[in-house]
Design brief:
Length: 425
């Protein structure tokens, strides 16, 4: 994909990557790109700054590492599939069969943004990850069947029904065919209306019953027990990016601590797999020292920044350079209830949805909206940073027991601008 700093390569690894593979990818990202590596909110691995000449070389490295996905719709499997001690069902055979179908170009006319989520459950489920088709296991003691829904995340999706595991591939194939029949721009959300969803529900092998209960949000950061008796350590990338040299060093330290592989995970995170508890503790300390997030309550998790200037040619803000200062200034506000989005321009690549506060370069402020919305106010970035402290002070002095999101909702756009000292309009 073309971006302001050249071409961007996105990989969705189908499972854990051997440490040597991570090291080789980092080397390739440095040699053929600008050395910036990202893990996205959906768990994709991105390498930036490739050129028209270097991108084919990078692709050759990827294929040589055995990572050629064969094209087709992105498949997102629950992290640690087949390894998670709390997993409800091992859906790797379904994943492999679906991947084979896609590799045969059976759904070649499905648009590149159509995604299929295969969720075996466990501690790192995919309920919060949006997708086009979601196949979800529930505790085997409750039901061995799989639940199928389309569009949105697990809470907002449209339920189609339940299917036996042996028929799941057929059901997915049918829904993909329906989407493909409407052209490459079609998405599952086009079928989430009453009539189309009802037509899909009449599929053989789908039976009606209430959808699964919502689960507590998945938390990738921390120690996860594996069915091998070992553990995986989850860490996250501050503001979703790091340098290839830093990631390479982390992979080498992970290996020294006993990890055999690393897997990307939703939530801009990485899982080092195959550790014992001592090794996990040792790696956690090394990762923290290298700037990675190792605590679930790290306030930096709630500041989202796009590539920004100078990486992106469209940017009018050095988003990633400013993000640490903004996270520091906003620390008392970052209680997990709200997100602050820094966007270099109105495109809003890093956070397509609404955020409590969105600062759009060079000086626009949107309250409870998206980067592309009409700005509510204006402030130079220094004033925005100072305003975060004032907003926080207002919350403390109000005496009202409320979350930061509650404060922003109560004040509304005008009240937030006033509290921050920003100009209206
Ligand atoms: S939001 Fe704008 S500035 Fe940021 S990466 Fe996307 S195009 Fe570039």
């Amino acid at each position: 994909m073309p971006t302001g700093d050249g071409l961007l390569a996105r990989l969705m690894p189908s499972g854990p990557l051997a440490i040597d593979t991570v090291v080789a990818l980092c080397d390739a990202g440095q040699v053929h790109g600008n050395g910036i590596v990202e893990v996205t909110q959906r768990g994709s691995l991105q390498f930036r700054g490739l050129s028209a000449a270097s991108a084919p070389e990078f692709a050759r490295c990827v294929v040589a590492l055995g990572l050629d996905a064969g094209g087709g719709a992105p498949l997102i499997a629950s992290p640690l599939m087949g390894l998670d001690a709390h997993e409800f069902a091992d859906l790797r055979p379904l994943l492999a069969a679906l991947r084979a179908e896609l590799a045969n170009h059976r759904f070649a006319s499905v648009g590149p943004k159509v995604s299929v989520l295969i969720d075996g459950g466990g501690s790192l489920h995919l309920d919060g990850v949006p997708g086009d088709i979601r196949v979800q296991a529930v505790p085997a003691a409750e039901d061995s069947r799989l639940h199928v829904s389309i569009a949105g995340n697990a809470a907002t999706g449209t339920a189609l029904g339940w299917t036996e595991p042996q028929h799941a591939l057929e059901v997915i194939a049918h829904v993909l065919s329906c989407i493909a029949s409407r052209g490459t721009d079609a998405r599952a959300r086009d079928f989430a209306n009453g009539a189309d969803a009802q037509a899909l529900r009449t599929l053989a092998h789908l039976s009606d019953a209430p959808p699964p209960n919502p689960r507590p949000p998945a938390e990738p950061i921390g120690v996860h027990r594996l069915n091998t008796g070992q553990v995986a350590l989850g860490i996250a990338l501050a503001f979703g990016f790091t340098e290839a040299a830093v990631l390479k060093r982390l992979a080498q330290v992970a290996a020294a601590c006993g990890a055999s592989s690393i897997q990307t995970s939703p939530g801009r995170s990485l899982l080092a797999i195959g550790l014992d508890v001592n090794g996990a503790n040792e790696l956690s300390a090394a990762a923290a020292a290298a700037g990675f997030l190792v605590r679930p309550n790290d306030p930096r998790r709630h500041v989202v920044a796009c590539a920004g200037a100078p990486a992106c040619g469209s940017a009018r803000l050095a988003t990633r350079e400013l993000a640490p200062a903004i996270a520091e200034a906003a620390k008392p506000l970052l209680d997990g209830s709200l997100t602050i989005h820094l966007s270099g321009c109105a495109k809003g690549c890093a956070h397509p949805g609404a955020a409590a506060l969105t600062f759009v370069g060079p000086d626009r402020l949107v309250v409870q909206g998206c980067a592309g919305d009409t700005p509510h106010g204006m402030a130079p970035i220094a004033q925005f940073i100072a305003g975060l402290s004032r907003l926080s002070a207002q919350r403390q002095s109000s005496g009202i027991p409320e979350s930061s999101a509650g404060l922003v909702s109560r004040l509304g756009a005008a009240g937030v601008l006033d509290a921050m000292g920003a100009a209206h309009g």
